[in-house]
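This week, work through this protein record:
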Amino acid sequence: METEKTSEELVRGQAEIWQHMFSFADSMVLKCAVELRIADIIHSHDGAPMTLSQIASCIDSPSPDIPYLTRIMRLLVRKNIFTVHHPSDGGESLYGLTHVSKWLLHGSDLSLAPMILMQTHPSMMAPLHCLSKCVKEGGIAFEKTHGRQVWDFASQNPEFNNMFNDGMACAARIIARAIMTGYKDGFGCIGSLVDVGGGTGTMVAEIVKSHPHIKATNFDLPHVIATAPLHDGVYHVGGDMFQDIPNADAVFMKWIMHDWTDEDCVKILRNCKKAIPEKNGKVIIVDLVLQPDGNGTFDDVGFTFDLLMMADTSGGKERTELQWKKLLEEGGFPRYKVISIPDLLSIIEAYPG
């Protein structure tokens, strides 16, 4: 029996390795669905299921290959991204949306489509081939691949910069909704707010919509601010958070600290402390808090993000609460609390003194 059990375990192990080996194909098929706008096509059909020939007729191509599309949809159905219904009368199968594919809709406030295009872009995926090299030699995978760090690469490649900003903006809209749900009272006593590393201002603009009394500043590198659209109630400022940060009652940072080493984060926090009032000021950090033994909805994703930070940044990483505590104390914020919101990220509210 022991031999039989061992044999079964080996077979299961083999199957798992095959799944891990080809998981990149799942990402590419997801990208394909976004590029072909399959979810949008079905959604524009009043959300009603459609046949493959109907879907194909709406794809931006004079002669889409339906056999190719059939096989792509078969995998997407297998992954529960779309549904399929086979009529009993033998008619064409009908494909519909799921709670997953609704996140692929372009132009929706709850869309991850731009983030999918960003994360699956060759420039973002190529550094992952250098992970073993980085283990042996150290260094930054993105820099080994592209000859420069990601921020410099973005500043010199407008197309990549726009794609990156679009990806971050779509994530900001999603996170904003979660923040407004789980932290709706956190902005009430704030008169002014600076969003450090705020990209094109999407996040802080959403905050101002819900809290129009706030005087808001969107602060980021000049090449990012150069592409930022106008937002009501938001003032754009270009600069460098390692030099100084505009003064405000509170500093807001979403998905910023995980890009940097502990030493860099301490520098950022100390500049935050200089920018806010000593008595009533606070820093609002929206970032991942790793749960090493957790089995929550987003816990596995957090560890994947940690590897992406390792590949794409100069020492960036995701952190456990204990690591956050140490970082905050060194940066001059001995008091803090972690607030859970319905999202991948959490809110860390930190206070000086």
